[in-house]
């Protein structure tokens, strides 16, 4: 029987290491959950996440069917593939939940977020803030002699990038809606 010798500090793995190499990969998923629009449903959904230690990165809720009294909860969360499957299964077992769609795995989707950003500054910083807002297609929805409030819509990455550029120019406050998402195509 030949023994495999591995030098100390080598990056080779042992043949006896049976752990799944993908087990620690954390993925971000966007889930669309159709629920009855009734008191306590959102609390039950959030309770599922908090009770099991899952994090919610983004959460939006609105009624989407007035006659059927149904709401759509859009949740952006992260976890290993096994955790994501567990979240979807547990969401599907909550009584007022009608459907759970994982937009991340069901195909391409469109995701947008709205943000309002207050930027205070004077002189060149004020001019630069307006120039960057134009590049990012952000609208100035309020203006005083000391500050602007910009409205920007786009992907979460676009909003993050705009905020990063506004910080040195006097970013004071941000309000974000969270992600709204729909799958692409006819279905």
UniProtKB/TrEMBL annotation:
GO process annotations (BP): isoleucine biosynthetic process; L-valine biosynthetic process
Database matches in Gene3D superfamilies: 3.30.70.260, ACT-like. Chain A, domain 2
Catalytic activities: 2 pyruvate + H(+) = (2S)-2-acetolactate + CO2
Transmembrane spans: none
GO CC terms, sorted: cytosol
Source organism, top-level taxon: Bacteria
Biological or metabolic pathway of the protein: Amino-acid biosynthesis; L-isoleucine biosynthesis; L-isoleucine from 2-oxobutanoate: step 1/4; Amino-acid biosynthesis; L-valine biosynthesis; L-valine from pyruvate: step 1/4
Function, in words: Catalyzes the conversion of 2 pyruvate molecules into acetolactate in the first common step of the biosynthetic pathway of the branched-amino acids such as leucine, isoleucine, and valine.
Designated name of the protein: Acetolactate synthase small subunit
């Amino acid at each position: 029987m030949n023994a495999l010798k591995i030098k100390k500090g080598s990056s080779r793995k042992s043949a006896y290491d049976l752990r799944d190499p993908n087990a620690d990969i954390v993925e971000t998923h966007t889930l669309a959950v159709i629920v009855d629009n009734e008191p306590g449903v959102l609390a039950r959904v959030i309770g599922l996440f908090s009770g099991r230690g899952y994090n919610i990165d983004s959460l939006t809720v609105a009624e989407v069917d007035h006659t059927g009294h149904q709401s759509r909860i859009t949740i952006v969360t992260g976890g290993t593939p096994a955790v994501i499957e567990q979240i979807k299964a547990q969401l599907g077992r909550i009584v007022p939940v009608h459907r759970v769609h994982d937009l991340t795995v069901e195909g391409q989707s469109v995701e947008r977020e709205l943000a309002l950003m207050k930027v205070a500054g004077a002189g060149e910083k004020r001019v630069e803030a307006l120039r960057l807002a134009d590049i990012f297609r952000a609208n100035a929805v309020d203006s005083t002699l000391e500050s602007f409030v910009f409205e920007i819509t786009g992907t979460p990455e676009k909003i993050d990038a705009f905020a990063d550029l506004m910080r040195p120019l006097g970013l004071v406050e941000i309000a974000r809606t969270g992600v709204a998402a729909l799958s692409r195509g006819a279905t």
